[in-house]
Structures are given as structure tokens and as C-alpha cells.
Amino acid sequence: MTVSEAPPFATVGARGRRLDADDKVTGRARYAGDLILPGMLHGVIVRSDRPHARIVSIDSSAARALPGVVAVLTAEEAQGRFGEIVKDQSVFAADRVRHVGEPVAAVAAETAALAAEAANLIETDYEDLPAIFDPIAALAPDAPVIHDDVASYAGPAELIRWGNVLAHITLRRGDIEAAFAGADRIVESSYAAHSVHQTPMEPRAVVADVDGRGRVTLHSSTQHPFGVRYQLHEALGIPLADIRVVAATVGGGFGGKLEASLDIYAALLARAAGRPVRLVNTREEDLANGNPRHPMRFRLRSALAADGAILGREAHIVLDAGAYAIGSPLIGGVAAMLIPGPYRIPNLAVDVKVVHTNNIPFGSYRGPSGPQSVYAVETHMDEIARELGIDRVELRLRNAFEDGDEGPTGQRLGRVSLKEAITRAAEAIDLATPAVSDHPNTLRGKGLACAWWLTTTGSAGCGVQLNEDGSVVVQIGAAEIGTGAVMAGVAQIVAEELGVPLERVRIIWGDTDATPMDAGAQGSRTLFNAGRAAQTAARDARQQLLERAAALLEAAEADLEIVDGVVQVRGVPDRGVPYAELTAGQMWMSEPILGRGAFLANPPAIALDVIEGSVFTVFNAPSFHCHAAEVEVDRETGQTRVVDYVVVQDAGFAVNPTFVEGQMQGGAAQGIGYALTEEIVLDEGRMLNPNLALYKLPTTLDTPNIRTVILEYASDQGPYGAKGVGEPPVVLPPAAIASAIADAIGSPVRTTPFTPERVHRVIREGPQAATKDFPL
Amino acid sequence: MTVSEAPPFATVGARGRRLDADDKVTGRARYAGDLILPGMLHGVIVRSDRPHARIVSIDSSAARALPGVVAVLTAEEAQGRFGEIVKDQSVFAADRVRHVGEPVAAVAAETAALAAEAANLIETDYEDLPAIFDPIAALAPDAPVIHDDVASYAGPAELIRWGNVLAHITLRRGDIEAAFAGADRIVESSYAAHSVHQTPMEPRAVVADVDGRGRVTLHSSTQHPFGVRYQLHEALGIPLADIRVVAATVGGGFGGKLEASLDIYAALLARAAGRPVRLVNTREEDLANGNPRHPMRFRLRSALAADGAILGREAHIVLDAGAYAIGSPLIGGVAAMLIPGPYRIPNLAVDVKVVHTNNIPFGSYRGPSGPQSVYAVETHMDEIARELGIDRVELRLRNAFEDGDEGPTGQRLGRVSLKEAITRAAEAIDLATPAVSDHPNTLRGKGLACAWWLTTTGSAGCGVQLNEDGSVVVQIGAAEIGTGAVMAGVAQIVAEELGVPLERVRIIWGDTDATPMDAGAQGSRTLFNAGRAAQTAARDARQQLLERAAALLEAAEADLEIVDGVVQVRGVPDRGVPYAELTAGQMWMSEPILGRGAFLANPPAIALDVIEGSVFTVFNAPSFHCHAAEVEVDRETGQTRVVDYVVVQDAGFAVNPTFVEGQMQGGAAQGIGYALTEEIVLDEGRMLNPNLALYKLPTTLDTPNIRTVILEYASDQGPYGAKGVGEPPVVLPPAAIASAIADAIGSPVRTTPFTPERVHRVIREGPQAATKDFPL
Description:
- The structure is a homodimer.
- Chain A is of the alpha+beta class.
- In chain A, the strands form 8 sheets. Chain A has a 7-stranded mixed β-sheet, sandwiched between helices. A 5-stranded mixed β-sheet of chain A has the order 9-17-16-15-10. A 4-stranded mixed β-sheet of chain A has the order 18-26-27-30, sandwiched between helices.
- The first copy, chain A, folds into 3 domains: about 5-30 and about 455-600, Aldehyde Oxidoreductase, domain 4 (2-Layer Sandwich); about 30-130 and about 205-280, Aldehyde Oxidoreductase, domain 3 (Alpha-Beta Complex), CATH 3.90.1170; about 295-455 and about 605-765, Aldehyde oxidase/xanthine dehydrogenase, molybdopterin binding domain (Aldehyde Oxidoreductase, domain 4, 2-Layer Sandwich), CATH 3.30.365.
- The two termini of chain A are about 45 Å apart.
- In chain A, α10 (about 370-390) packs parallel to α18 (about 735-745), α13 packs parallel to α14 (about 525-555) and α16 (about 655-675) packs across α18.
- Chain A contains 19 helices and 30 strands.
- In chain A, β11 (about 205-210) and β12 (about 215-220) form a beta hairpin.
- At the A-B interface, α1, α6, β19, β20 and β21 of A face α1, α6, β19, β20 and β21 of B.
């Protein structure tokens, strides 16, 4: 870890224990599915088994007649539309289903078994429509149009939409034609990246409660309680004052629990039944009906000078949105920003087409579009290096962003850690020394990959109360999704600012009634935004405390400091008052101390002349990263094993190094799973492997020791300089592993995942075009 | 209702519906006893069946051996001491029990039946000690001392304590000897007032939860969540950061749910078992082991001028505290302040002795010491009027406090509504016209009584958040105990200040993690204190809103007003911006709006030269009241029926007249129950009538139509001038009814309750001394 130049801290920067650690490791943490409410019913959602069909009729009479069934809902009983960017999805399909798994009805009954039985009794008569599953085919002028009434959808005006194209995002910079005209060499290659599921340990789950006025309370496994509240409000027209969303313990989300999904159906059922309703996905439901990572296709073409300078880049990207939009236009915008990589490329022409198919809708998964895009861009960089005969590291260092450079949309960068990251990663894996196999049947290779990443903005708020004994209660709207950002990071920040030990802090989080608004655990934003709000709130409380101490000690506030629980005149330890003496009388003798903090970093900017159809043009607190890998490939089977892995990450400031490392290691492990074994296998829009026997998550045996190096290039907005750290680690592994495999086998692998079959074929046959390559 | 001079309000002052009304009337409200937590155990407390005994041994081995029993606790496993004023009570009796019902052990088991079975298996071997049940006997110099190790108790230094006297409170003013020496007449009389139970619809109930660190969450039927948290902290030494108290729906409290009672045992059992524990009193447990109203004895002696001016008053009061202190010293202090009544009495000598007996501990019941003291004082006033031959109303008006007068401890009074209250009550009951019976077997009489009352201070805090649609979330630490002070009053105040309709407000209350500190629903304080904090918080949010509007409209904040959901330049309706436009972007485009308010009225003052041994010397926002009653007494049985009843009450400002009237009527009904039928019958410290067949609550058939007149003499601290309204209505009925009975039968009744037997005896035999009269 780079030594921070920050002043000596007591609590931040240290490896404090999470406040929820004991509950998590002893199995005591209470998840949404554990909750029991008096009179609670069990719900189930009835889903389409067709990828594209007209609904002729739905007969729910037998289900309704079943004793113990309390509510049955279809489009007839419950209208409403939802969607993160575009309100394109009906709560229940009325006339038409567009993907396998689309909700058609929902049932609430006295037991889960009865609910399942009732669901089976609902008869839906379909008339199949022509379906498309390949986004390139969906672009054909004569392709059937999946959404043919887009004018009736609400959505941002910036969307440029035609046929099955949901959004067409363009990034233009400089003079691309001149760049290619003046190039010494041109390198062109194509890549295809597949879909994987977030597979949190805990499937989606919610319990909806309802009061006598129809006001709904959701106990939800959500990353974004305020977002779920707003989506419910928008989808169902329920006033915000009539909805409370309380985040239950979240057993992992990884982007899969940002949208209101089960929440909407649980709320509808609870209101219809007038009783609480529990909806918990089975693993199969969760895998088959999630919103997994987007499959993407890339065609990249770079104009190069002989010395390796990248003069220009042209890129065509097709992102399969699946049947509905969710956040896909936004995610396409992120992809556009990633195509230049963290490199100075003066001339750019990037086109991202976000395209509908009859696949399941694809959505947010940690670092959305990142693993796919960085894999394509960095493999392309390796191919350039090979083509030009320049060392991979050298090529990257030659083009790397430097302090004060301008990003692809004109954003002025501050200090850039990229070159240090590259150097440290290359050193750690000893890239200069070729990998040597110790067995004739195996090949060994080393590789590395770079990327930059953003820290998402959005509102954050925090309240800090002091108790009579000087301990602290924190109310924060952010969600603790298992990263420690709240239960370690925020706790440490508050403890630091108030000069109290960590165990004297307690935190309530993610409750739309009890905590200030927050834009949710997404985009690596929690510690950066909510941490800053917490710091402000703690300083506000501290100020109120100092005011009381100043009056008591007859000193100026500015001359006071807090040392070991005593507020004292700086440098005069015997002129002090114990902390708890200032707080003890709060119930009867003095007003309660109530600190408050709100924070919003640069809001998202829209610059249509640069990026059309998307909203991401500013990377808040941009961070720079490099991963390096060493792999062993079985010459005869193509089986690849990662034997060493290094993550070098700029955290800005590591409020808790343990949890930053946890993110780095966990993200890298997920990235390794994506690169090698995990895959959602769709056949005509239907998932063929919706269980954990067939959907192959890496186990500890598949995961190497992941070494970590934290860089601390402070941001000027995050608390103590912190930047978002959650997403970057998952973004680079496919690229780094691809680089190492290419090093081992001598050819690039242009399609993910790097299965034995695929790697073996490249060993045998040399470089392939990407699966389902497409013309520029 | 007096027409208020306040500006026209939209929401306050109107009869808005409570936000929890639907839940309450449909039976959907969820009480602590309704909660189910995963793995929850059922607890029971094992109590002493002796009034005073040494514990020889406790054998809990059989209970521990019973399958399904998870935790058994006695003093061996759980130490700790508690008590509101004096920490005189062990959590579990170790060596000695001092009253029937004192906790000796507690059990948690898989079912309630198993817990009860285990409790029965615990064998306690006692050696009886001499017990005292009469507080006068307890004063005898040779009485056995119930607390003989008081030096080891923590308690305020102001307590003056000897023998069985827990506190001796004295109030001295002027020259009492001179007053009596110069008197034209001296009237002396004695009174005895009995004990009644708060009997809320819902008995005490709590569910304790515990996390992996031993942190405890209590879902409690409590009036005072922050108080329970603090008492747990003090009793068990648990840091405040390790306790959360969430008030469940409270099915009535009336002072009986101020103290941590079951809470302590539930917390201990949950921590011992490592699982949630539910403790719910049966009605019998609740009646027999509550902390009911204090039995009190009074001997009053007044020095009078011939014209009715009261020159001086000497009073000796004995208040039976029962076996432990709880809040009795404080309550004795209130009694002292009530003895002069709302009258100018220049010379005073009041002695209140708070005395221990081996009765159950007596505690807070709505208007503590008020009904007893006002009954004594006002009956004494009637006796003076009769003695001097002055009309009852005339005597009161002649001595009544007036604007700017000085209270008995030197407090300067503001505007005094007393004379208007007396006049209005006398008019309403037509006191000038004698009551006439319409049946030869019945006697009729009319009466009235006056009192003044305080509004308790204590911290209050509130948070106000604005949602994207302009609706409002309020976090308030106060408890909604069924009065509407929070769910109507606070809601209306916030709606008023922010210019939104009532249904766009939602409130979370009484949660030590989620809401700012509050000193609890006691002493008529909620609306006065928490309402003011809410007003401040709403104004803070409003200010933030106006700042945004000012920037947008390019206007000065001072020139803006909120009209019908639009922030507009005053008088220029077309230069405005809809409210929701200012709040809509809070998630992504602007910081969240977080309003905050804290409030503390004059803190309690201690003035040892005036009142020794107590803390009440200032009545915050004092209010003045008069009740009038007409009764019918059966000549042959002594049975008394209240046929008409009028409550005239100064509310300062009625934020919601419906709920002020609700307090007035509910309080009067409880007061009628106290006066006529309810009584805790103790035999050697054991309650003989611990069920609702024998403990006679008045039904609707026993309760007349209660007419209400609200006066509005604004206070300068409460919101819009509001004063506390909860306690006064329960304080006056025994006095008013005694006055009417005396009018009917021609003699005062000097002991409560006014049972047929007692009234019949007075009819037969004329005025009695108070039961168990005592010498001065």
C-alpha cells in the first residue's frame, strides 16, 4: 500500500471489524426470507414459458376456486408499467409476452405449496410470434420489431431508437478519417462476450406488509431501497408517502437487486389480500428470471503510428438488451466511455447499439459492460502490441493517461495512477520473465490488463445522534450489501470524526422512513457518497458538542480538540471535559445533539454533441487499475487454471484496507468465474442451466490466491480522498486472463468464456474470429 | 371553543384524521405481543408470593432440567439494580423480597406452556419478616425499616430520608404562624385517597431480540423508548450503543408503561438464550404487578379571613410509595405544588412524606398525585365555603390566580384562564340553579372543582425529509400512546408548516435508532415539546425548499410563500414553481432536503430553600381547568350515578380539537371510574381483585355524556401556543363528583372511592373523618 500523506488517523485507514460481522459469521443475520409477519401469505409469480407470443386468454378460475388461495392477480386486476430508463414493461403481460419468464399472473395463498398449486392451475393460451435471439439478426431491416408501440412508452428524449434498436450511442472525437489516413498500421479485430448471472448467495426475496390505509411496507433484499420505493411509486401510482422500503440483510446483490422486481408483485398481492405476503425466489427462478450481464459484440479498429501511439479508434458495439430496456441505454453509455481505454486517443468514432431481442432482459451486474468492454479493448491492445512488435507493457505506458490529461468527453483528469498501477502489476507478476511450464503437457503464460473506472454520483444523506453516554447512532440511507462500506466504512468515518471507539457506533441503514435519501448501492458509490455525507453529519454533531464544551470551558471552539473521549483545550490536557459529561444531560437538561449531512457529487451531465443517447459523460473520481495473471493451460484439453493473480487498484484512500482488499479479491474471483466457467446458456430465450450444478460458479479450488496492491491517489470529493472500489476488480480479469492465455498458447481467444473446448480449438486452429462475428 | 386570534391555518386547528386511525379501528395495528421473530422463545417471570421475607434458598434445578427450557435466570445469573429516582431495586431479589410480586427468577422456553411449567418448578424457600402495609404505621419510630441499607443506593442528594421515609418534601412560603394567628376562621379536615390501576386495554408486552454481538433490540409496548433504553443501560450496564428500543403500537399506557419492567427481563433472557424472547403479561399479572396510583392521606388546615380570602394553609400529606421508590419522590413534589390549588395563598407550610410499606410499589398513573390531591384540596375548599357560608364559586373566584400572579414557588404566571374556566363550567352545569331530583328515592347534587397543571419539559427532536413527489417523512422520538399527539398533532403541524395535505405526511416515531431523542409520553408533554421540535424541523425543511425556489425564481426567500403546493412570489401567483418540481430531482440532481428540529423548554429547577427533596418548582406552560358534575344518589343504597359532566380545559391551542376533546372525555371517564368504582384492593400487600370481573372499570353505561369546552390561552413555548392536555382531565373528576355528592347528600365524603356503602354511611351518619385518619 502506498503510504498515505494524510494526517495520522485513529480509526479510518485501520482494519476495524464490521459491526455486522458476528451476525454474518454465526448465521444469525436475518434475511427477508426469514421474516414472519402475523397472518403472512406466500406468493408466487406465474411466468410466460414462451419467448414471444400473443396472449389469447388467461383462465385463472380454477386457481381462484382453490381453498386457501387469497389473491390472484393478472393484467385484468393490476395495471401499471415499469422500467428504469424506459417504462416499457407491463406489470403483468396483457396482450403479448416478449420473453420466457415474463410475469403473467401472481398468486398469494395460505402456504407456499398452495400458492404453487394455484399457479399451476392458471391456464394461459398463447399464439406464438416470430422471435429473435441474436442481436445482429435483430438489426436486419426486415427483422420483426419486438417493441412496435414505443411512442406510448415514457423515456428520455435523448434515446435514439428505431426498429429493434433501443438506443444508439455515439462518441465522436477529433478527425477519425484523417487518423486512419495517416496511420502507419491499422489493426482490426472482433470479440464476443457472454452473459453471466450475479448469483448472490441469497436469491431475491421480499415480504410486503400492508396497513389499514393500504400503505405498504416492503422488507426487501435490495441494494436500493429508495429506488425500489420510487419504482413502486412510478409503476403502481402509489404516492411515496404510502410506501416504506426497509432493506433486510442483503445476501449479496452485485447489481441484481437494484430494480424493484419481486417487490412490485409482493406489494400488489399484499394490497389485494389485505395481509402480508412473502415472495422468495427459488435458485432456479432467480437464475432464470434475473437480469444478468449483457452479451456484447465488439468490432474494433485502431489507427497506429509505428512507435505504438494510437492515433484513432473506430468501434462498433452491439449490446443485447434482451426483451426490455431496464438500464441498458445507460450501460451502453458506459461501454462507449470504456472503448478508448485509459489511453490518450485523439480521434474516436464509437457506435454502441443497444438492441432488443426475445432473450430475457439483461441488466446491471457489478461493473456493467465493463468486463466485456475491457476484455475486448485490452485483448485488442495485446493484438496491436503483437502486430507492432512492441512489448505489451510498453504499448500501454506509451499511450497511458497522465496527470491533467483530457478524457474522451473533454473531462479534465486530476492525478492519474495508471502508470504506477501498470508498473506495480507487471513487477508483481514479473512480466519481464517469461512463464515457464513445469510439465510437458501444460503451457504457461502471463498477462495484464488496464482500465479506468468511475465512481457513480447520486444523493446521499446521513444523521448522527449522540447518546447520553457519548455513544453514537447513525442513520444512513445507503445499503450495506455485504461490502462493509456502511457497517465498517461509515462506522469508521463517524468514529474518526467524533473521536470515539468503533464499538460505540451503531448504524441503521437503508430504510426510507428512518434514514435520509440515498441513491443506492450501485456504481461503486456507497463509501464515496454516503461516507462523505456521514463525515459531514459527524462533523456537524462534533461542532454542536464543541459549542457546548466551549461554553463550559470558557474557550474558543477553534482551540478545542477531542482526545481519548475528552474535549480539551488544545495542548492543555487538564482543561478538558469528558465527552460523556457533555452528552449526559441530553434527556432533561440540554437539547439533543442531532448532526446532519447531505452530499451530491457532480450530477450526471448530458452532452449530446459528444455522446448521444446516454447520460454518462463525466467519470466522478476516476480511478485507474491494472490486473496481472499467470495461467496454466492443459495442452491436450484446453483446460485453463489461473495460478497467480495480482490486483493493483487505486482506492483514493482505503478507509478500511481489509474491505477494500475484500472487494479486490471477491471481484477478481467473480471475474475469474466469468472468464473461465460461468455462463448463462440460452436456447431460444430459455435458460438451459438454471441451477448451481449446471451453472458453474468457481469454488475456492478454482480460485488462486489473489494478491492485492492498494494505491491511494486521493480524490478531492470522497471522504479522506476515497474513491469507489466495488466494481473495478470485476472488470479486468477476463482481459488479464485472456492476455495470459494468449501468452501461453500464442494466439488470442476472441470469445468468452475461455472454456476448454474454445481454448483447445484456438491451440489447434489458431486465432478465430469472434463467435457470430459481424460486419462493420 | 374560544375563537383563536391566530392567523388562519390550513391544517392545524382542524379535525384531521389520525394517520393510524384505520389500523386501530380495523384491528390491524400490530402490538408487541403480536410480533413473531424467527426462533422466538416465550418467557415468564417468577415472583415472590410473600410481602416481606428473607430468601433462604432458590432451587431451579428441576426447571433447568425440563426439556424445552432454554434459559433460567435468578440473582445468581443476573445482577443489576434499577429504579427511576433511586436505584433501590435488584433485578432479581437475592436475599430479601419486599413485596408480593417481586421478581425472583425468569424462564425462557420453547412454548409459553413450557415456560409456565418451568416457573412452577422453581422452589423458593422463604423466612417471613415483619411487614407493614399502612404508611402511617410505617412512620412509627419503632416500625421495622424496610430499606435498611440506603447508603448503598444511588439517588439524588436532595432526598431527605430516614426510617421508612423515602423523601420528605417541604414547601414553605410566607409566615404560616402569623397567618393562623391573624385568621378569622380556621378550617381543618382530613382525606384519604385510594389506589387504582392504569388498566390499559393492552397489558405490558415486549419482544426482545439479540444479535451476534449481544446487542439487544426491544419491541416494547412503551411510552418512553429512550427512557427504557437508558434504564436498561443503567440497570444492566449495557452500553447505550448496544441497545435499540422500538416502541410497538401502544394499546394505552396512562403512565404504567414509562418504566422498563418486562423489558429488563426480556433483554436478560434473550441474551442468555441467544434467541428472541417474548414476554406478555396476562391481565392478572398486569393488574397485580403494575405500578398503580399512590394511596395518599391528607390533613389540611386553612387560615381564613371572614370574606373568604385564604390567608395560609398548612398541610401534612403521606404518600404510600410501596416497597420501592420508582418515581415517588417526584410525584410527592407535584403533590406539594397542588396543595395551594390554583389560588393566591401567601403563607404555606406543606409537608409531604413519601413512605415505604410492603405494598406493591406505586408509580405513575396519568396526572400522578393529581386526582388524590385535587380531591383533597377542592373538597377542603367546599368545606371552607360551607363553613364560611360563601358560595363555592364565589370562594374560588375570590382566591383564584390572576394574570401575572406569582405561583407558590415564585414562578411568574402569564395569562391565567382560571376565572373563565370557573365561570364557563358553572354556567354549563347551571350551578346557580339547585339540582332537583325527579324521584323520591334519589338525591341530586351539582358540584365543581378547579385545578392547575403543568406541561412537563424534557428533550424533543425531530427530522423532516421531503420525498421526490413533495410528500414528507417525519422521524420523531416521541411516542404515540393512543392520544393522537403524534399521528394527528405532529402530522398536522408538519403539514401546516410545509403547506401539504395531511395524507402526504408519514411518521415514524419512538425508535431509539431511527428517531431523535425524546423524553417520552409523560407529563402531558408530547405535543408541547415534540410538536415544537416538529414545527422547527418542518420550518428548516421549508427554508431549504425556499432557498431552492428563490434561486430558480430569482427572488428573495423572504418574498416567497407556499400556496396549494406551489412556491410562489408573494402576490404574484404566476411566478411560481410547483413544490414537487423542487423535490423531484433529489435522488440524482440535488442534495436531499433534511429538516431538523430540537427543543427543550425550561429544564426542571431545584430550589432547596423552597421545596426540599423534590425537583418540581416550575410549572412549564401552566394550564387552568374547571370540571362540573351533576350526580344522582340513591338514598337507600348510596349508589351514585353521574348524570351530567362538563370539562372546561385550557389547551393553549387545540392543534386537533377532536383529540383534545378525546383526552378531555377519556380522562374524565377514567376519573369517574376512580371516583366511583375502581379500586385496587390489597390484603397484606396482595391484590384481591386482579381481574376485570372484580376490578370494576366503568363501562359506557356508567359514563355520562361528557361535555367539553376548550379554552385557548396560548403559551409562549408550545407550537401555536399549545399546552399539555393529557393529564388535567383525569385530575379533577373525583373532586367535582365529591362536590356534587356533598351537594346532594349535605355532607362531604372524605374517603375515596365513593362506593354505595361509603356514601350510604355518610347519608346515615354524617361527615366521617378520613379512613385511617392521622394526627398532624
